[in-house]
Design goal:
The protein has one domain (about 1-220). Helix 2 (about 65-90) runs antiparallel to helix 3 (about 95-120) and helix 2 (about 65-90) runs parallel beside helix 4. The protein has about 220 residues and is mostly helical. Helix content is about 80%, strand content about 0%. It has helices at about 1-60, 65-90, 95-120, 125-150, 160-170, 180, 195, 200-220.
C-alpha cells in the first residue's frame, strides 16, 4: 500500500526533479537570448540614428526627399529606443526602472508626434523640431537612469557607462524647448535664447547616442 502510494507520486517527483535540474539551463538560454536581442536593437537604433544624421546633412546640401527620410528616421529612433529600453533596463519592478521605462515610452510617443507634425505639414520645421527635442529629453532620462542602474555591472566598461550618461545629459537639455512648444513658436527668430539652446540636445541624440549604441551592440550579447 505504501509502495503503491509512492509509485503513484513518483512521476510528480521525477518531473519536479527534472524541472529543478534543467531550470538553470533554461534561465541561461533566456539570458543569452535577451543579450542578443539587446545587441541587435542597439545596432538597429544606431543605424537609424546615423541614417537620420546623414539624410539631414544631404537635405541641407541638395534638398530633395532627404528631409522626409530624416523625419521618418526620427520617429523610428524613438520607437527603437523604447524597445531597447524595455530589454536593457534591469529590475523592471524597481522604482527607478519604472521611471526609465515610462520616460522611454513618453519620449518615443513625443518623437513620433514631432515627425508627424512636419511630415503632414501641420507645423513648420522649427516647432516640430522643438517637439522632437522634448521627446529626446525624455529618452535622455531613460538613458541616464539605465546606465546608472548598470554602473555596477563588471562586464560593462566604465567608458560605455560614462558615454551613455554624457549622451543622456545632452539629450535632457531638450526640456528647455518646452516653453517654445507651449507657446507654439515656429520661428527661431522669435524664440528666447534658452529655447534655442534646447536644440543642443541633438548633440547627444545625433552624435553621442549612436556611438553609445554601437558600443553596446559590440559587447558580448549586449552586455
Amino acid at each position: 500500500m505504501h509502495w503503491a502510494r509512492f509509485t503513484s507520486c513518483s512521476p510528480t517527483y521525477r518531473q519536479r526533479w527534472r524541472r529543478d535540474r534543467y531550470a538553470p539551463d533554461v534561465g541561461q538560454r533566456t539570458e543569452v537570448q535577451r543579450r542578443r536581442t539587446v545587441s541587435g536593437l542597439a545596432l538597429a537604433t544606431a543605424v537609424v540614428d546615423l541614417l537620420g544624421v546623414a539624410s539631414l546633412i544631404i537635405f541641407f546640401a541638395v534638398g530633395g526627399p532627404f528631409g522626409f527620410i530624416n523625419d521618418v528616421a526620427n520617429g523610428l529612433l524613438g520607437l527603437l529606443s523604447l524597445t531597447l529600453a524595455w530589454h536593457w533596463v534591469v529590475g523592471r519592478r524597481s522604482g527607478w526602472s519604472r521611471v526609465a521605462l515610462a520616460a522611454a515610452a513618453v519620449g518615443a510617443l513625443v518623437m513620433v508626434v514631432g515627425s508627424i507634425l512636419i511630415i503632414f505639414d501641420i507645423t513648420g520645421w522649427y516647432l516640430a523640431g522643438l517637439v522632437s527635442s522634448v521627446g529626446n529629453a525624455f529618452l535622455g532620462v531613460w538613458l541616464l537612469v539605465a546606465n546608472r542602474l548598470h554602473r555596477q555591472a563588471l562586464e560593462l566598461p566604465r567608458g560605455l557607462i560614462m558615454l551613455g550618461i554624457t549622451a543622456a545629459t545632452f539629450m535632457i537639455i531638450g526640456w528647455l524647448a518646452i516653453p517654445g512648444v507651449v507657446a507654439r513658436l515656429d520661428d527661431p527668430q522669435l524664440a528666447p535664447w534658452y529655447v534655442n539652446a534646447g536644440l543642443l540636445n541633438w548633440i547627444g541624440t545625433y552624435l553621442l547616442y549612436p556611438v553609445w549604441c554601437l558600443w553596446l551592440s559590440r559587447r558580448p550579447g549586449g552586455q
